[in-house]
Known about the structure:
It is built from two helices and two strands; from the N terminus they run ββαα. By secondary structure, it is α+β, with helices and mostly antiparallel strands.
Amino acid sequence: xxxxxxxxxxxxxxxxxxxxxxxxxxxxxxxxxxxxxxxxxxxxxxxxxxxxxxxxxxxxxxxxxxxxxxxxxxxxx
Length: 77
């Protein structure tokens, strides 16, 4: 998914700015988390995601669910 643009909210309502994300090499060309886990267990490659990244993704998914349930914005600290 690179190169890509990330749109971030600005300081004023309805304002945003785009952040260019350049091309990066992909250390996991298979793009398969199960393949990666097996390769990790056999010592062939590092895990694609560490614990902190996995926790951040889960917190985002929980916030999306909460926002959908309540119809309100969820703000992170």
